[in-house]
Each structure stands twice: as structure tokens, then as C-alpha cells.
Design brief:
- Helix content is 65%, strand content 12%.
- Strand 2 and strand 3 form a beta hairpin.
- Helix 1 packs antiparallel against helix 4.
- The longest helix has 35 residues.
């Protein structure tokens, strides 16, 4: 029987929050919009067929994941994407891609050796 224990660390928890946040198309769109500049939650809400409160909840999930910053400007909150967090998510995906490419290359090498000796 294979016994696998998952070790949790801060980096893994951060990755979980980031990918959970990015799993939703509305949240991905909010990040994309706020990469070019800051928008108030009211301005963002105008782009969606959902309530202001629903957009506010999406922004809260993105903020918790570290993907956006919120800054109070008078009565409004200005939402801006944190490019470092987006780049961090890309780095995690790059790491997994490199790992799987390495595994596939090793499998190819093993299969080639097996075919040559057969």
C-alpha cells in the first residue's frame, strides 16, 4: 500500500489561495482589468451582471490570495493587481511544467532503450 503524506507549508498554502482565486473567470477578469490600472469596486461592478456585493466578494477573495491590493480613496476602495503575485503563480506553473517535461523525457529515454534491446 502506498502511503503518501502531504506536507503543508506557507508556500503551498499561498499557491492554494492563488489558484483557488484564479479558478473563477470573473476573478481572472478582475485581475486582468486591474493589471493596467486601479479601479474602484463600483467601477469594476459595472462590468458584470452581478450585484455590487458579489463583485466585492470576488475582490475580497483576490485580496486574500494576494493578487490585488485595496487602497481606500475617500469613500471608495481602489483595487490594483499585484504583478508580483501573478508572476509568482506563473513561476509555480513553470516549475510543474519543467518537472513533468523532465519525467516525460526520462520515460522516452527508457522506452527508447527498451525498444533498442528488443
Amino acid at each position: 500500500m502506498y502511503n503518501h503524506m502531504v506536507v503543508r507549508d506557507e508556500e503551498a498554502d499561498t499557491a492554494d489561495r492563488v489558484f483557488h482565486a484564479l479558478a473563477d473567470p470573473t476573478r481572472r477578469d478582475i485581475v486582468a482589468r486591474t493589471l493596467v490600472g486601479g479601479f474602484s469596486v463600483s467601477e469594476l461592478a459595472q462590468n458584470y451582471t452581478m450585484s455590487f456585493a458579489a463583485v466585492q466578494k470576488h475582490v475580497a477573495v483576490l485580496h486574500h490570495a494576494g493578487l490585488v491590493e485595496k487602497e481606500r480613496r475617500g469613500r471608495e476602495q481602489l483595487v490594483t493587481a499585484r504583478i508580483q503575485s501573478v508572476e509568482g503563480a506563473a513561476a509555480i506553473l513553470d516549475h510543474w511544467q519543467d518537472m513533468w517535461r523532465g519525467r516525460i523525457a526520462r520515460m522516452d529515454a527508457l522506452l527508447s532503450r527498451h525498444t533498442e534491446t528488443s
